Amino acid sequence: MTFFLNTLKISILICVISIAPVLADSKAAAQVSIAEVLANIQHFYVDDIDAQKLNQHAIESIFKQLDPHSEFLDQNELEALFNVANGRYTGLGIEVEQREEHIVIVAAVENSPAHTAGLIKGDILLKVNGTSVINQTIKHVSQLINQKQQPQVTLTIARSGHIDPLFFEVERKKIDLKSVRGSINNQGVAYLRIINFNNHTLYDVAKELAHLSQIVAGDINGLIIDLRDNPGGILDSAIEVSDLFLESGVIVSTKGRFAEANQEYYAQEGDVLSGAPIIVLINEGSASAAEILAGALQDNQRAVLVGTRSYGKGSVQSLIPLGDGQTALKLTTAKYYTPSGRSIEGTGILPDYPVIQNTLTHNEGFSTLKADSFINAKVHDLQLEKAWQLLEK
After folding, report:
1. Is 11 among the catalytic positions?
2. Is 236 a catalytic residue?
3. Residues 236-248: pLDDT tens digits?
4. Is 299 among the residues known to form the active site?
5. What is the pLDDT of residues 165-204, one digit of tens each?
6. Which of 299, 315, 330, 381 is catalytic?
7. Which residue among the candidates 179, 288, 310, 318 is catalytic per the annotation?
8. Which spans in the chain are helix H?
């Protein structure tokens, strides 16, 4: 699905597990091991071979047989994954995905160098520092961005509506991934934008709701949760946020081949909004953990969904430590299911009220969503306008 360049994919659901080595059966033992093949190549091949590169190519070949979400993480990539999970990383702030031979920008993180430079959703990466990235992997593109000593990175972009390529100078910087922000109007209707799901999202959501309640000196009478272009993140975070609004019932279940992959997660008693109505906004950029929250609230009849079909990222990736724990395998180990038993892998979640947003981009619309212009914002954002109409009823 999607990656933050210079770091990792956070549109996945991550759980960390440890799997003990499994003894090969007699049939498997009779097969030639990859380690043996690599050892013989390194020892007998006519030319000197870089063992590290040889091993890397072998590993990449193995993962090509698996799904796009499974991969080997070296020490830097593993560290980057944990940094993003904790809401910080160093990079450009572009989230990308691979579409055939192209690397396409899915989103530019708000207030990131990429966002400031003017990169937008749908931009296609053609070159990084003058080197073509067509038919290259996301990992290779990330390496090109990081290999330059200077923080400035030159990106050559193809953009719809422009015949000639566009050029952007973007500086790598430390980025704090703020996961939540919100506003509230005079009628006590709150707007909550959840940007991603990291280890701090539950705290951030609870803190923001408490703050909005203080602004109106009373209860929140209705809530719009905006999950548009939310690429997902941590499984536990999505479950915890869902539980804030549910009194009971299943939040999500996971199913896989090994015992620990089969789980059901239930809501605990207590609804932070005491039953006040909720509208959830989703679009094709709402993935993974965002889909868990949307599906949990929809299936438990706690919220209605407005927007367009979500992305359809319905698998769970587990981290399996290797060696001394400095590297790891990130493997797809389970699929998740909404409370009604739906698997959304490849299909997504359908909104209760389909609304196509065709008047402005999400980033343009979101720039108007401040406390002093919340009411006016609905005039420009068709999906937000529909949510507002539903709450008024």
Report:
1. no
2. no
3. 999 999 999 999 9
4. yes
5. 999 999 888 877 778 989 999 889 999 999 889 999 999 9
6. 299
7. 288
8. 26-30, 34-44, 51-63, 75-85, 113-117, 138-147, 201-216, 235-244, 289-299, 362-366, 374-380, 382-392
